[in-house]
Amino acid sequence: MKKKIAFISDHASPLATLGGIDSGGQNVYVAEVARYLGSIDQQIDIFTRREDTTTPEIVEFSPNVRVIQVPAGPAAVLPKEELYMYMQEFADHMLHFIDEERIDYDLIHAHFWLSGMVAMEIKKELDVPFVITFHALGIVRRLHQGAEDKFPLQREQIEQDIMWHADKIIAECPNDVKDLMQYYHAPQEKLEIIPCGYNPDDFYPIDRKTALAHIGLTDDCDYILQLGRIVPRKGIDNVIKALAELHESFPRLRLIIVGGSLDDLNQDTELARLQQQAVQAGLESKIIFTGQKSRDELKYYYSAADIFVTTPWYEPFGITPLESMACGTPVIGSDVGGISFTVRHGETGLLVPPHAPEQLSAAIKMLQTDIAKRKKMGEYALNYVQKTFTWGHVSKQIDTLYNQVIPVHRHHKILNQLKKNFHEASQTFIRSADLLPTQITKVAQEMCNTFVNGHKIMVCGNGGSAAESQHFVAELVGRFEIPERPGYPVLSLNADNAVLTAWANDFGYEYVFQRQVQALGQAGDMLICLSTSGNSPNILHALQQGVDQGITTVNILGKSGGRAAPLADYNIIIPSQDTARIQEVHLHIIHQLCWLVETQLEGVNKHTSTTKVNKLTA
Amino acid sequence: MKKKIAFISDHASPLATLGGIDSGGQNVYVAEVARYLGSIDQQIDIFTRREDTTTPEIVEFSPNVRVIQVPAGPAAVLPKEELYMYMQEFADHMLHFIDEERIDYDLIHAHFWLSGMVAMEIKKELDVPFVITFHALGIVRRLHQGAEDKFPLQREQIEQDIMWHADKIIAECPNDVKDLMQYYHAPQEKLEIIPCGYNPDDFYPIDRKTALAHIGLTDDCDYILQLGRIVPRKGIDNVIKALAELHESFPRLRLIIVGGSLDDLNQDTELARLQQQAVQAGLESKIIFTGQKSRDELKYYYSAADIFVTTPWYEPFGITPLESMACGTPVIGSDVGGISFTVRHGETGLLVPPHAPEQLSAAIKMLQTDIAKRKKMGEYALNYVQKTFTWGHVSKQIDTLYNQVIPVHRHHKILNQLKKNFHEASQTFIRSADLLPTQITKVAQEMCNTFVNGHKIMVCGNGGSAAESQHFVAELVGRFEIPERPGYPVLSLNADNAVLTAWANDFGYEYVFQRQVQALGQAGDMLICLSTSGNSPNILHALQQGVDQGITTVNILGKSGGRAAPLADYNIIIPSQDTARIQEVHLHIIHQLCWLVETQLEGVNKHTSTTKVNKLTA
Q1: What sequence ranges are listed for the domain SIS (chains A, B) (predicted)?
Q2: Residue A601 in contact with partner chain B when CB distance is under 8 A
């Protein structure tokens, strides 16, 4: 199934460089999934907030993948905590873009709650289904960060709204499912676990010596690697404390800390704090602060390290363990969030509690002591992530999810449209109930008079109205509800194909009814014309002929009544512009007229006659 | 217009003797109007509460008039103030009686508010219109009687409800109109002034001497007559006071007081009070208390008197002034209620304020002084009431009112039924919206598959369903909303009359569709049968033939689905038992199917194609 998918990634553009305070896993996720889906011929547009005016609005990112930079708020990098107020503008621009480009997206994939807001708006306007990957959840973040959290208070309620409106919610790991259900009561049937991934072209094992040489370290030490954004919740101080307990027993042990801005320690207060901690612990010679490194350098650090350590307080998913495993290096990680899921304890590394330096040091000690086991873990880790966590695997699962959502939504959309049509029809009946009864009683009275005076009724229409004309005659020559009555003299002018084709072929279709009115009609008769538009030429000619012959003329119409209305003695005009809805009420009015005429002529009342006789067959 | 009218007169039976504390004007009104209407060939049933068990339930009262004695509460005379609690029982019995006797009353005429409650109930149940004569109004009574009023507090609200639900309200005089509008905000367009009347067979002038002799009085005195129920509000003490002022100047003047129970003064405390008042005023020789007299005696009293006096505090209508005038005796009356209307001041008598003995004595003095004027007033009074107030005149006006109400109500009833039908249809659509969309999408998908695979669809039905079958084909071979598409291969098996009549005549109508399915159908084709019952034999044969030939079978049905349902691959069954409502939804489903098939096969979506093309003519 070839699809058109819109990604919304409010703050995390695939174009942004990695490593800034607000660029991280989400940018990679969006870029990698889009690139893969584009490579299998899906068409992806990534909508992201424009952060500068130097790059063009639309950037071709990779085959079949465009980045649409949406102007919403200032064209500058802003903390994502400040973006909430620009999301309506974002949605408006996105809707405008979709309208201008006339694109029918099959599905939207929103990333982060702010993008989810936009997706809800687009779904409301265009009924495009959406899938959401939250990447992080407000309640979970608040539980761990408390007052540090600078997002607006509405976030948690909006996240819950998004969960109600989303077609599917991608949870990144089982802990994510637990959080979504426990804190948000997310509907279980919408949840689908699809993890994040890594790119095997970027992360692969490099010979340790080569790697050490590349990053300028000697191979006479054992290296523990800590890599990632330098923020308190990553628990880097925990790693320093663990090293403090070990460094005397393992004097060759070194800790490499990659990340942060060494050039500007006044700004990067967290890095400064960690350096101070290292000095206070007497570890300044054992810890190597490298500062932030570019993405293509990272594989050397992962490959050079003997152990990768990451002990954050919490971690929605955590891509660095995957990258480490992809370079063949086992991971010691906090038993939290996605790490519990990606690191297989005892097989691809070890899991420890967060905030627990003694347990971390014990784990490091174990892997420093049993080198064979550590090596085996590294091999197993590499094998494991290659089979499970490449972006190719991940993207295929996402594509499968899209393929589930799209037809289900399309089916719901059709069902909703059918329901809407039923309700629209129902409303047309309600409007008719207000407007038409008086006129219906007048026409019924005229019909009764016509029969009582020994005259007849002719009925005509075209197409669907021709069918209804015959329906009308069937009820009157036959019976509506009282079979014991005589048939009434009524005939349909569109029923005899020989007559119709004879006159249409020789003199023109516009005269087929006129000819019959002239032939069959007598003064005192009645002509009833069914027409949704009131503009059919053969109807107009028939009416004029009726008027000329002293025949009572009645129209059952719709819309404006058309040119037929002024030609008739009585007009019943259905209050609708829709041909199908008009015809449906026409049939109802035919039934109402039959009921009125039959009850009046047969003198039915509730005691002297008849429980209602329903037709046995019809 | 010959009519069946039900009177409801909860406490005032025409059978009851007049003169008791609770029998008075209303009994006469009901009896006289009913008798007159019966005499002009209207059929009247008077429903009244049964007060004893000795008379039969149904009494023939006069030609065409029956009294129906309704068991509601104890079979004993009760004060009307205690009847409120029995009115639901009254209404239930009356409904039961109507149902048992299978009578269609054209109209109900309720008398008094308690009867109005019953009329409201009957109208609610059977939609019979009603006219009400209140005879007295709760608010007005309370204004004049205050705490003396023993009716339940709900009375005034119920009276207002009755005014809202009544079709017409008979006011007895202009003061009544004023009260109804001022105190009850009664809808003005419902008010009709029709007075009470008198019976000229009962009241006519008798020679004064003959009359005096008949009642045992001498003609050497002048007689003032006070006649009526002996209750305080009648202001009889006012008349005694007036006499006290006059008796010395007019020694021949006598006051005759007719009414009350002389035999039981312990019970009739009011009469005892008046006798005491007479003694205290030294008038015992001037006032003649006769006690209550039978109805046929009254004309002698009226005829014997020189002046009739009635000065009640208030009087909704007051029949005694009419009776007096009918006997040629002028009236001095309070300028209140109906008396202001019936007594023409200075022409048929004089009007004085109530509670004003000086003004009453002045009026008596005037008529005692100017004998010629008094005689002229008597003649004029007789002439006036004969022309205006006989029960014949009154009843004709009431009959005219009925003749206005009945057709207006009948028209409203028809309009309401039409509205109800529209709403019932609307509700059938709403129910269908809940139940049918999934099945409709399945049938539409099968229709698309049939066309895509190069096969055709056959449609058939009988009567109205035959017409809808052709409507369906017209939309598919023609177009629903997209004229640019090719026609789809669909044909109606009920469209060719030559084929139908050939096979029906020679082999039976039940095989007309089967024969065509056999002739035209191929494996992979589809057969769609329209039937409200699902039991038409020709449909059943056609379905079986389709099954045998490997044709996909679809039913569009109603009710239980009938015997056709088990024969088809797909059934769409309208949730209704009503043939007409089912057919209306059938047409809607035909339109829905056309829309689905057309949009799916023509690949319509909102950007690439088409504003909806409405038919120019249909």
Answers
A1: 447-607
A2: no
Is B301 within the bounds of a domain? yes
Strand A58-62, strand A65-70: pairing: antiparallel
- Residue pair B590/B476 in contact by the 8 Å Cβ criterion: no
- For A183-221, b/e burial (b = at least 16 CB within 10 A) is bbebeeebbbebbbbbbeebbbbbebeebbebbebeeeb
- Select from A413, A447, A471 the last residue of a domain: A413
Would you state the pLDDT for residue A24?
A: 64
Edge-to-edge strand order for the sheet containing B307-310?
Answer: B287-291, B253-258, B222-227, B307-310, B331-334, B349-352
- A166 shares its domain with A220: no
As a whole number of angstroms, the distance between CA A358 and CA A351 comes to: 13
Do both B591 and B444 map to the same domain? yes
Specify the DSSP class assigned to residue B345: B
In the sheet with B570-573, reading across from the earlier edge strand, the strands are: B490-492, B457-460, B526-530, B552-557, B570-573
Locate B508 and state its tokens: 């039976």
Do the chains contact at B605 and A104, CB–CB below 8 Å? yes
CA distances from B415 to A124, A585, B298 (A): 41, 17, 51
Contact by Cβ (8 Å): A503, A515: yes
Q: How many domains does chain B have?
A: 3
User: Are both B258 and B191 inside the same structural domain?
Assistant: no
Question: B291: domain range?
Answer: 208-389
At residue A100 the predicted structure's pLDDT band, cuts being 50, 70 and 90, is: very high
* 3-state class (DSSP) for residue A256: strand
Which residues of A, range 434-493, sit inside 8 Å of B by Cβ? 434, 436-438, 440-441, 461-468, 470-471, 474-475, 478, 480
- Interface subset of A 526-555, CB within 8 angstroms of B: 531-533, 535-537
Q: Which of residues 417-436 of B touch A (CB under 8 A)?
A: 418-419, 421-423, 425-427, 429-430, 432-434, 436
Contacts of residue A614, defined as CB under 8 A and 6 or more positions apart, other chains included, come to A481, B577, B578, B579
The answer to whether the Cβ–Cβ distance between B606 and A104 falls below 8 Å is yes
- Give domain status of residue B428, yes or no: no
The answer, for B615 touching chain A at a CB cutoff of 8 Å, is: yes
- Nearest by CB to residue B579, choosing from A465, A467, A615, is A615
Give the max Cα distance, chain A: 122
Cα(B537)–Cα(A618) distance, integer angstroms: 11
- If pLDDT is split at 50, 70 and 90, which confidence band does B147 have? low
CB within 8 Å: A421 and B535: no
User: Domain boundary residue among B329, B356, B389?
Assistant: B389
- At a CB cut-off of 8 Å and minimum separation 6, what does A497 contact? none
A383 and A406 in a single domain? The answer is no
Note the ipTM here: 0.75
pTM of the model: 0.76
Put simply, the chain B residues between 309 and 368 with a CB less than 8 A from any chain A CB are none
Q: Do B536 and A618 touch (CB under 8 A)?
A: yes
Residue A363 sits in a domain of what CATH number?
3.40.50.2000
Each residue's pLDDT tens digit, B7-44: 999 998 988 744 444 456 788 899 999 999 999 999 99
User: B411–A441: do the CB atoms touch at under 8 Å?
Assistant: yes
pLDDT in tens, B518-564: 999 999 999 999 999 999 999 999 999 999 999 999 999 999 999 99
Decide if A299 is inside a domain: yes
DSSP state of A534: S
Query: What residues contact residue B204 under an 8 Å CB cut-off, 6+ apart?
Result: B299, B326, B327
- Taking contacts as CB-CB distances below 8 angstroms, the residues of chain B near A580 are 480, 588, 591, 595
